[in-house]
Amino acid sequence: MVDLSTRIGSLTLANPVMPASGTFGPELAKVFDLDALGALVTKSVTPEFRAGNPLPRLCETEAGVLNSIGIPGKGLDHFIEHAMPEWRRFRAPLVVSYSAPTVASFAEGAARLAATPGVAAIEANISCPNLEEDGRAFAMHPEPAAAATAAMRRVVGRAPLWVKLSPNTGDIAAVARAVEDAGADALVVANTILGLAIDIETARPKLGSGMGGFSGPAFKPIALRLVWQVAQAVRIPVIGVGGIATAEDAVEFLMAGATAVQVGTATFVSPTAMLGVVDGLRGFCARKGLARVADLTGAALPTGLPRAAE
Amino acid sequence: MHLRPNIRAMDLGPAAMVAERSLKVIESAPVGRRYHRLLLEAPDLSARSRPGQFFHLLCRDGAGNGPYLRRPMSIWRCGAGEPLGFLFHVKGKGTAALARLRAGEALSVVGPLGQGFALDPAWRRILILARGVGLATLAPLTGAAAAMGIAADAVLSARDPADLMAEEFAGVSGASVTAVFDADGSSEVARVEALLRARFAAARPDAVFTCGSNRLFLLLQRLSAEFGIPGQVALEQQMGCGLGMCFCCVRQIRDASGAVVNLRVCAEGPVFDLQAALAW
Ligand SMILES: Cc1cc2nc3c(=O)[nH]c(=O)nc-3n(C[C@H](O)[C@H](O)[C@H](O)COP(=O)(O)OP(=O)(O)OC[C@H]3O[C@@H](n4cnc5c(N)ncnc54)[C@H](O)[C@@H]3O)c2cc1C
Ligand SMILES: Cc1cc2nc3c(=O)[nH]c(=O)nc-3n(C[C@H](O)[C@H](O)[C@H](O)COP(=O)(O)O)c2cc1C
Ligand code: FES
């Protein structure tokens, strides 16, 4: 028997596989029993109602997709009142992704979520524009990323606080260290990388809002590199995400230093992809004679460097 | 159900569970110059599929070539003891890959998905207005109506007689079909309007259904509002997940209070109330 259980700070998950924010919803329960997952992750919730971006919001490339969905949603009040009861039907721990335009609204929302029964962890999506910094994403630089994290930590007490980093920064290790120092319990690496596709017949971007976030198989080597760099820069657990479709992909992320993984775009192509990752991880550990999936974490990191998640 | 305010009729049944399944192709054949049909062996999925619902197809040919994302495709044929069938326009790389599939090869499907058409057992007669391959979506409705003793009148609009596919539409359902064509000008909106007005006067339908053309949708919306006849429209939109999770497939729909909201074609649709849907 392989032990798939995974610890992320004070939280213990039955296995290290969970969905990526924005690519998942309770609708997937029509396809399989969601309690087979290590955790459930909501799409990002915002303080207020948002209509979302102009169409087209998604555009396919050779081995991935560009998206500019614009985080449509009914806001935090509606989420707590109407979506939470539906999420509480599941036993798997619920991670609520939260995104806000200012440091103060990050803190305000995080405080409310931390006080909401059934929220096992908060995943702060700091890849969104910071209205106090000319619309540059919080995650681009260490200072605003740390400011948002510290403000949330001050109000959530000991509630698990994860922070999701962006590839759209020059020095992800510096952002990671700043967010760790500001009190994050874990880092989710990474959000989509900024990209573009142009329709050459109309000479217009293919996405309604121009640029978009790139994800899927072609993004995997970049995300894996980011996990590798971040895992060597911090002591808190890293959750790897970007282009994972199979257990082999997940093993690479674990070996690069991740403690758990998230699966996003792959679910669009195969709604049962996450189940395949869970089964395949069990099989891989058995074949390698590993008793615990946790033993894979950091296995490929250069020796002598501190390992994440110890 | 507030999302489809004017559809008070009985739903043809919800899809409780969604399957991701590899199915065997039992027939793959071109239809006319631009279309293709696929029949798949799927006894249980076919039995629980409903007219108006769709499947999300992984469009990979026998060699595994095809686009990254799945493509949505309406159910053209379904029912207990029936193969699961799709009828499509060979348009881009996804549908071209589908058309290269041969009998005996496998196709990965996800479904059945979405909310299908609703038929009220009290209705005696419905009218169907379809343009082009939009008839694939409406075709299974004729059989469902016949099974409930509801007569179906159809007006099919196509480029020319070679493009019509009347046989693919009506099958053995006994639906009466009137064809209009671009080739002879009979498909012009004004002439279709005259045709429908005459129909409404002679044999008023209890409900109307449409798919496949924005102009015909607007015409039918206007006429059915004038005559006070309820209707349903099947909408299309590019999709990512097909399951209601990514919010890329939204269309503007008027809710019960009259406010315009973005609803997901894959989840709240593809079938919407005819008066609630906005033009695209
Ligand atoms: C619920 C639903 C049911 C459908 N049922 C049928 C059907 O029964 N028969 C049929 O022939 N077609 C149907 N379609 C449309 C079909 O999905 C598209 O024609 C198909 O995705 C095109 O894929 P492709 O790779 O061949 O073309 P692509 O190379 O992807 O695209 C060719 C062109 O079609 C456009 N396009 C792509 N996807 C869509 C879409 N979903 N809706 C509108 N335009 C699109 C592209 O923007 C491009 O201009 C349906 C669509 C939906 C949403
Ligand atoms: C359609 C779509 C919507 C997304 N929405 C969100 C979101 O709301 N919040 C967030 O933090 N990440 C969002 N993401 C990013 C994913 O969570 C993930 O970080 C990224 O897609 C990389 O993983 P993948 O390659 O497995 O998809 C979204 C991605 C996609 C494709
Ligand atoms: S296609 Fe993803 S929500 Fe409709």
Classification by helices and strands of chain B: alpha/beta
Count of all domains of chain A: 1
Q: What is the fold named in CATH at topology level of the largest domain in chain B?
A: Rossmann fold
Distance between the termini of chain A: 23 Å
Q: Could you name the CATH class of chain A?
A: Alpha Beta
Each distinct ligand: flavin-adenine dinucleotide, flavin mononucleotide, FE2/S2 (inorganic) cluster
Q: Whole-number radius of gyration of chain A?
A: 18 Å
Structure write-up:
The complex is a heterodimer of chains A (310) and B (280). With 310 residues, chain A is α/β, with parallel strands linked by helices. Chain A has one domain: Aldolase class I (TIM Barrel, Alpha-Beta Barrel), CATH 3.20.20. Chain A has eight helices and 16 strands. In chain A, the strands form four sheets. An eight-stranded parallel β-sheet of chain A has the order 3-16-15-10-9-8-7-4. In chain A, helix 3 packs parallel to helix 4 (172-181). In chain A, 54% of the residues are buried. The mean pLDDT of chain A is 96. Chain B is globular, with a radius of gyration of 18 Å. Chain B contains six helices and 14 strands. With 280 residues, chain B is an alpha/beta fold. The interface between A and B is medium-sized, with 31 and 27 residues. The complex binds flavin-adenine dinucleotide, flavin mononucleotide (FMN) and FE2/S2 (inorganic) cluster. Flavin-adenine dinucleotide is lined by residues 54, 67, 71-74, 87-89, 91-95, 133, 136-137, 236-239, 265, 270 of chain B.
